[in-house]
């Protein structure tokens, strides 16, 4: 990415020391220690070394610096003592606040949005992922050129197509960013059209699409690998998966379905990322069923659930879309906690306790998903010519063959199908 952000990111070298600061206004769903731990985990995900964490009570935000002068002095003293080159604020900073804090602290300052964007920038592996991250980065950076350049007052003469007489450097840079963003949006629109064609083809097949969603590091990729036999990166690390992955799976009574592994969500997910990744996340919007994978052993599991549901609503996922909650990481719970969890799950039809790591509960989850997808299916008797192999394959692919026998030139099938699929089968000949 050729933008202002790239010009001064030397502090992001792996092994750089960072200080995490939480301006705590109270009333949050998570306690301050949990927020600090998560932000430290985000920093460590890109190789930063977090040397200390500070939670500061914030009574009233300051327009110029967010926090008070005494708190600035405290952070500056800690940063000097820890030799921290980077101060990460678990908050949203305006460009002015970011610039003023950098001046006061004599260190590079980034906010939560900047940190998440940096992680996504490092993790994007596909051309589409890189397009999406660059678009989000440019959108975020456009308002922060005032921080990224030291020669903004300089004017440039008019030459070629780069600008007219007297155009300031910042105006030229903003125009270049706008032009680049417009180009990226056109390319992502093409991605969106291509995805729409693929989805339309799948719907005509039709194969049900099951999307795994959940908070980052909840175990989605581990479950995806368990169910598909794939080898998607699955590490105990925030945002280990960024680019989407689709694989074919078989379910009880359903010969073929598509399972989608998606990027993990996080609290306060930057709006730039939600917008940029909308093309990818349309797989979630159009899914036939969602499996919300939750790290049930995490102390903030309920707050994480709320964050995920908030992002799904922002994406436009209909509340009517069927979904299950897979309460993952049973293997991390002691016997008492497991017993309480199992008792609670038994009272709900939409919850399945599992361990993606050991496989416990995964078969029951697949059966529950298959039952939900085949709700309304009926039993039909079908007669085919024994030579009609395509018809027999269609029945196996789209329904559940309960019984089958051959008499002379005819093959008889007892099969469970949806009424729509039975009608399609009747029309095929």
Find the count of extended strands (DSSP E, 2+ residues): 15
Number of helices: 15
Distance between the termini: 55 Å
Helix content: 40-55%
| Main β-sheet, spatial strand arrangement | 8-9-7-10-11-12
- Beta content comes to 15-25%
**Please, what is the average pLDDT?**
82
The sequence of SSEs as H and E is: EHEHEHEHHHEEHEHEEHHEHEHEHEHEEH
Segments where pLDDT lies below 50 for 5+ residues? 1-11, 147-166
Overview of the molecule:
It is built from 15 helices and 15 strands. With 429 residues, it is an alpha/beta fold. Strand 8 and strand 9 form a beta hairpin. Residues 1-11 and 147-166 have low confidence and may be disordered. A six-stranded mixed sheet has the order 8-9-7-10-11-12, sandwiched between helices. 44% of the residues lie in helices and 21% in strands. It has helices at residues 32-44, 69-82, 95-105, 112-123, 127-142, 145-148, 169-204, 220-228, 271-276, 278-285, 301-315, 335-346, 362-373, 389-398, 419-427; strands at 17-24, 49-57, 86-89, 108-111, 155-156, 167-168, 209-214, 245-251, 254-261, 289-295, 323-328, 351-353, 378-385, 400-407, 410-417.
Helix/strand layout:
Layout: E1 17-24, H1 32-44, E2 49-57, H2 69-82, E3 86-89, H3 95-105, E4 108-111, H4 112-123, H5 127-142, H6 145-148, E5 155-156, E6 167-168, H7 169-204, E7 209-214, H8 220-228, E8 245-251, E9 254-261, H9 271-276, H10 278-285, E10 289-295, H11 301-315, E11 323-328, H12 335-346, E12 351-353, H13 362-373, E13 378-385, H14 389-398, E14 400-407, E15 410-417, H15 419-427
Helix pairs in contact: 4-5, 5-7, 7-10
């Amino acid at each position: 990415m050729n933008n202002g952000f790239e010009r001064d990111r030397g502090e992001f070298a792996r092994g750089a020391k960072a200080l995490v600061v939480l301006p705590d206004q109270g009333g949050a769903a998570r306690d301050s220690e949990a927020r600090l731990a998560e932000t430290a985990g985000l920093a460590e995900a890109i190789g930063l070394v977090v040397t200390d964490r500070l939670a500061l009570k914030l009574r009233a935000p300051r327009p110029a610096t967010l926090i008070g002068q005494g708190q600035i002095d405290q952070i500056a003293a800690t940063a000097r003592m820890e030799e921290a080159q980077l101060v990460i604020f678990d908050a949203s900073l305006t460009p002015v606040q970011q610039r003023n804090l950098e001046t006061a602290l004599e260190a590079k300052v980034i906010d939560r949005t900047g940190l998440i964007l940096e992680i996504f920038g490092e993790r994007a592996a596909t051309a589409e992922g890189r397009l999406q991250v660059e678009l989000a980065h440019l959108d975020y950076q456009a308002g922060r050129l005032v921080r990224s350049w030291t020669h903004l007052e300089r004017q440039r003469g008019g030459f070629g197509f780069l600008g007219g007489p007297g155009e300031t450097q910042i105006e030229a840079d903003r125009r270049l960013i706008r032009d680049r963003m417009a180009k990226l949006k056109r390319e992502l629109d093409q991605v969106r059209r291509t995805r729409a064609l693929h989805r339309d083809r799948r719907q005509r097949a039709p194969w049900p699409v099951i999307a795994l969603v959940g908070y980052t590091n909840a175990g989605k990729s581990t479950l995806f690998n368990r169910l598909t036999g794939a080898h998607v990166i699955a590490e105990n690390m925030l945002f280990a998966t960024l680019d989407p992955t689709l694989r074919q799976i078989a379910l009880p009574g359903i010969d073929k379905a598509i399972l989608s592994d998606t990027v993990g969500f996080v609290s306060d997910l930057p709006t730039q990322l939600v917008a940029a990744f909308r093309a990818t996340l349309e797989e979630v919007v159009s899914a036939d069923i969602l499996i919300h994978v939750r790290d049930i052993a995490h102390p903030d599991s309920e707050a994480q659930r709320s964050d995920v549901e908030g992002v799904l609503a922002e994406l436009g996922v209909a509340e009517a879309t069927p979904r299950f909650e897979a309460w993952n990481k049973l293997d991390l719970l002691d016997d008492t906690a497991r017993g309480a969890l199992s008792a609670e799950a038994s009272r709900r039809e939409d919850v399945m306790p599992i361990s993606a790591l050991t496989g416990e509960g995964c078969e029951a989850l697949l059966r529950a998903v298959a039952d939900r997808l085949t709700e309304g299916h009926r039993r039909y008797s079908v007669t085919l010519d024994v030579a009609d192999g395509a018809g027999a394959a269609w029945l196996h692919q789209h329904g559940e063959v309960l019984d089958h026998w051959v008499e002379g030139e005819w093959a008889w099938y007892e099969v469970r199908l949806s009424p729509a699929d039975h009608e399609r089968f009747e029309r095929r000949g």
